[in-house]
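Researcher: I need the complex structure. Ligand is pyridoxal-5'-phosphate. Inputs:
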Amino acid sequence: MKINGNFNKLQDSYLFFNIAQKTSEFLKKNPGAPIIKMGIGDVTLPLPQACVDAMKKACDEMGVKETFRGYCDYEGYEFLRQAIADYYKEYGVDVSVDEIFVSDGAKSDVGNILDIFSDENTVLIPDPVYPVYVDTNIMAGRKILYIDANESNGFTPEPDYNVKADIIYLCSPNNPTGAVYDRAGLKKWVDYANAQDAVILFDAAYEAFIEDKDLPHSIFEIEGAKNCAIEFCSFSKTAGFTGTRCGYTVIPKELVREGRKIGELWLRRQSTKYNGTAYIIQRGAEAVFTPEGRAQIKENIDYYKRNTAILSEALSAKGIQYFGGKNSPYVWLKCPNNMKSWEFFDYLLTKCYIVGTPGSGFGKNGEGFLRLTGFGSYENTLIAAERIKNTL
Ligand code: PLP
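Model: Output:
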């Protein structure tokens, strides 16, 4: 028996382990230090009441013979897929219910979608990036090319027609940089992908944080995208479902390669390896789209965004350059005085008692940057901002 040797090529992920290690060592030396965790990538506010109520009701239904449900359709219940399709209409995007596939979250889908693509494909991944794109392709042994996201392109790199790629990852609003593609920027990628017969894997996990009316929430707002893109969405950051687990993937019927509809291949894959998302959870997700649910998720997202605004304001006051901070829960700051990411991490920890996430953990272009997030509490964010203003 041989293991998949590609696993030997994966880099150990020490990022969050090292952060926890350094923080606990600091606390050992400075017991009771009022540390504030601003590197946190998980939500902290509870689920919207509309979702809780819907799930309770669904739970009761499961306990009654007449309303009990067993295995669900692999692609999700129609009530949820219809609610998602209606949501897309708000952005002028026409997707039909059978182009929507419900799942237990964007991370699984982003990884699992690779099952339907040949390992011979070349993959193009921006750097810095959400590490899942890189690791899932290393596991499959695919050739990976990187495209530089950096200060000079505002962390929204454009395609280079000299580079040939088959699968392209885009994440907007971006984790970790908070950068968001505008329509013109996305159009360039759509044109490039169509010219190369490539497929764009568009991660829209943070679309709900977009507030600027001009910015696209979906790649399908861009002409030509239905021929070349798959979109991944999540209720995790939108509605606090990180522990509840629900997401969805949109694959347009127009997306065809080698005579095969990609959506049909995905359904074939899912029906073989996935047995559907729990009814109770799907009812909770459906409630996100009700008027009460919409109002409650807006309140939570506004809360997080007020935090990022406070952090951004503190950085501006100190003349520290940053990206994101708006239309995103992430603030991606340039470490002052040319400090390296870990150097500035240590500085923030020891001088301000603030824990951030070193940008170098997201790729080589993340070196010299640090990620702060709005997912903490308002009170702690205010204190952190004061410490930044008084210390840096
Ligand atoms: N995509 C991006 C860019 C993320 O940052 C995350 C989580 O942090 C995910 C996907 C995962 O989403 P989910 O919780 O739906 O699996």
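Model: Summary of the prediction. The radius of gyration is 21 Å.
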